[in-house]
Design brief:
Length: about 240
Amino acid sequence: MAMIFSELFGTMILIILGDGVVANVTLSKSKGNSSGWIVITTGWGFAVGIAVYVVGWVGGAHLNPAVTIGLASIGAFPWALVPAYIGAQMVGAFLGAIVVYLAYHDHFAATDDADGKLGVFCTGPAIRSNMWNLITEIVGTAMLLIGILGITNSHNNMGALGALAIGILIWAIGLSLGGPTGYAINPARDLGPRIAHAILPIPGKRDSDWSYSWIPIVGPIIGGVLGAWIYNIALMMFV
């Protein structure tokens, strides 16, 4: 139960700080308004690193169904715990999004851009093309798993610095691969807050773009499994 709760709590922290930086940059009259992509990607990288430091010592800090499934696919995590971990991640992401809404309540009301309000909660494509958007999410999440497995490999002796390195990994993925889709690379990070957007009384909001919502779920799961296997195959060639 401690491991499962740590996933809920860690994912909630991830979303509070991650969606929070998007709100700061996107919403009107915020002191961070229009500060740009560098701020968003940096904030997300820090969000992941901090969440891993807070709960990683309890349950591994997957904070992401794609990570959980990817690790399980190579035998690095028990399949029996996968449903509970994913459920906890979803709940944590949903609760984190509600906290962001409460923190920026007046700024949602002051913002006219309905797309920008949705973007606080979930990702969307810069150019809508289902196939290429899906490929982008697969590539980004595969890189995530390759990076995580590489950073945490015992040969690197990262210790407590591992969480910092994973935060830098998220930052790098956002800077390098985030432009086409907003780099969900995490089904819970996208779906939990998207559900929150759908039910919260946000003034002037648009629909929650459910026609796109499957891409940041399916793409990261495929990419997570692919990345885990690519790393495993590469590792067999290294040692």
